[in-house]
Amino acid sequence: MSHTVYETDAFIMGVELRGETGVALKVLTRNHGCIYVHARGVRQMSSKLRSHIQRYAHSKISMVHGKDRWVLVGATEEECSVPSPRDTARFAAYVRMLAFVSRYVAGEHADSEVYAIVHDSLADVMGVTDDDVADTELMAIARMCIHLGYIEEREVTRAYVVSARTMLIQEINSALRESHL
Known about the structure:
Layout: E1 5-18, E2 22-29, E3 33-39, E4 58-65, E5 70-77, H1 88-104, H2 112-127, H3 133-148, H4 158-163, H5 165-179
Parallel strand pairs: 3-5
Antiparallel strand pairs: 1-2, 1-4, 2-3, 4-5
Helix pairs in contact: 1-2, 1-3, 2-3, 3-5
């Protein structure tokens, strides 16, 4: 019996240890949304996939859908520039965006818009000055909240974020608090 191999871009949001050498990866994919992908043997020193599936990496993964779960069969690192942990402001903003997605986007369903927001916001974070990183992160969170239906729809631009920063943060916090998630 053959399985269809699915290839997709993915942000690795979390890694949970499974057994002696396995992991379950929580990933945000372009084609499948947020899913868990299981990988066996990747914690061994001889594993070729090991470096491509680290937490917070952006990779192109190959997977098959098994009986009841996704199974990793291949991975390569993507060209997208993920900030270095040494660049603390940018890396922290990137991690907080992925943490937001991990917490508030549930279930396996194709939602390329959330992936696009994270991908585009990551490019924006890498291209702004240190002073503008926080505004770029807030723009990304606001866009995700609008897309997910937590706050009312509006155009979120840098000028809007700068002028209505406090009000926007309060609105996002209130909406998320009311969601009880």
